[in-house]
Amino acid sequence: MNPRLTLLTASRVLQQIRADRRTVALLLIVPCVLMGLLAWVFQDTPVFDQVGPALLGVFPFVVMFIVTSIATLRERTSGTLERLLAGPLGKADLMFGYAIAFGLVAIIQALVATAFAIYVCDLDVAGPVWVLVVIAVLDAVLGTALGLLASAFAHTEFQAVQFMPAFILPQFLLCGLLVARDRLPDVLSTTSDFLPLSYAVDAMSAVASQVEPLGDVGPDLGIIAAWVVAALVLGALTLRRRTD
Amino acid sequence: MMNTAAIVIDDLLVRRGGVVVIPGLRVCVPAGQVVGLLGPSGSGKSTLMRAVVGVQKIAGGTVTVLGQVAGSPALRSRVGYVTQSPSVYADLTVRANVAYFAGLVGQGSDAVDKALAEVDLSAVADRKVERLSGGQRSRVSLAAALAGDPELLVLDEPTVGLDPVLRRDLWNLFHRLAGAGRSLLVSSHVMDEATRCDRLLLMRDGSLLSDSTPDELLARTGALDAEAAFLHLIDTAADTAEEVV
User: Fold this and answer.
1) Which chain A residues are Cβ-neighbours of B92 within 8 angstroms?
2) Are strands B207-212 and B199-204 parallel, antiparallel or unpaired?
């Protein structure tokens, strides 16, 4: 890996995102609208305070997964991927370049969505707000990393879009939002122990209910970070310089 | 580096989807020259070029570029590759595209400005690529390779869809680069571009029909232009095949 080439690539991806104003607006506004809708649906009940923080982690995860898998697919179909791989850019430079760029976008997205949830929707969390933001950002980077990995297996837009339900929905069903993870059937409960989104939701729930959640949140974040690195490395390994 | 080989290909065998597209090809491309790779669409020109830049899976044989195995890490900043369809980012400006690809091989803004001037795109440097014409887009793609100042340029149909004046200017540019010691392998399916090359490779069905200078080709076949020479070679090859049968 070459830090200069990684950062050059991250800055190029950011230029592309910035050039598409409507996408920037969607990235920032959609999570807020969904949080607002959720708060409205659960008006006058304690449910919003319980699931709101978890969804603050799930939204950026899903959005970044989709955006990244489409962006990398475009890189593939436009021929620029082949051009890059014929040049000095390392495969890991490309993967981490994308992760850094979308990570920066995720920071802004998490700040806006969290601020909206707390100050507009009156979301009440027991723990410190900055931890909420950190978890949301890491979740978004996780979405980016898994999106990069998934796009290695997608050769058309139709396939890329199908990977969203294939990669994301099972994790969503098992992450503890619908049924607490320890009350799932044994096989599913064990499976959920291996899925990264479970730890994202655990961490968010800890911030929601504990005044000092760092003891619980720390290990969760460690597992998510390990998943991010593993997905990026695996994504880099599945890229082939030579193709048929 | 002059008078040595830029590319040496020995017994190259390429299969795509189980079908043999290059059945054992040998050729030596000299350094410091503009070498044309001509042949109809589907003759294997792009596959050969992909093998040279090291992105094509090969089933056998060797491809040596600037003294090293094609695609080896040390070659990646010394070889410039321009694909047939322009491979640039449509949502970025012309300058941002060229600056990114130049930056990857360690070149700065001077090289970017020079490359944009060489392909006559300075006037639209701040326009997004998606707003350009097809011919302009392919020149952005070319500029992105030129800015890296590579020792070997592999250009797949760089002059398609360009007006005659621009085509002439680009060929002049190719010769200036060769004069400065760069090697160029340029493909085309337009036979009248043959006379602009220092050396010509004629390709058909994955095999080389001819490897000579344009003058030698015309003298040997007695044809008046490259198109006629090409037809002559195909007819002769067919006759020889019948005699063997």
Assistant:
1) 12, 15-16, 19
2) antiparallel
**Alpha carbon distance B5, B7 (integer Å):** 5
If 0-12 CB within 10 Å is exposed, 13-18 middle and 19+ buried, where does residue A172 land? middle
Query: Going edge to edge, which strands form the sheet with B34-38?
Result: B79-82, B152-156, B183-188, B34-38, B199-204, B207-212
User: Roughly how many angstroms between the first and final C-alpha of chain B, as a whole number?
Assistant: 45
pLDDT averaged over chain A? 91
**C-beta atoms of B83 and A87 within 8 A:** no
DSSP class of B43: S
**φ, ψ for residue A44, nearest 5 deg:** 60, 20
As a whole number, mean pLDDT of residues B147-171 equals 91
Residue of B nearest to A79 (CA): B87
DSSP annotation of A213: -
CB pairs under 8 A between A and B: 74
Give CA–CA dist B139/A122, Å, rounded. Answer: 55
Query: Given CB atoms, is B8 within the 8 Å cutoff of chain A?
Result: no
Residue B130 contacts A, CB cutoff 8 Å? no
Cβ–Cβ below 8 Å for B89 and A80: yes
Closest Cα in chain B to A71:
B89
- A23 touching B (Cβ < 8 Å): no
Is the confidence at residue B108, as pLDDT, over 60? yes
CA–CA separation, B129 and B95 (whole Å): 9
The CB density around residue B150, as the number of other CB atoms within 10 Å, is 23
Residue B1 has pLDDT above 50, yes or no: no
Q: Judge: A242–B54 Cβ closer than 8 Å, yes or no.
A: yes
Q: In A, which residues are within 8 Å of B88 by CB distance?
A: 78, 80
In this predicted structure, the answer to whether residue A60 has a pLDDT above a threshold of 70 is: yes
What is the DSSP track for A174-206? Answer: HSSSSS-GGGS-HHHHHHHHT-HHHHHHHHHHH
Q: Which ipTM value was assigned to this complex?
A: 0.88
Q: What's the confidence (pLDDT) of residue A42?
A: 92
The model's pTM: 0.89
Select the residue of B57, B73, B100 nearest A242 (Cβ to Cβ): B57
* Mean pLDDT confidence for A187-207: 94
Which residue is closest to A9 within chain B, CA to CA? B100
Give the Cα separation of B54 and B7 in Å (integer): 12
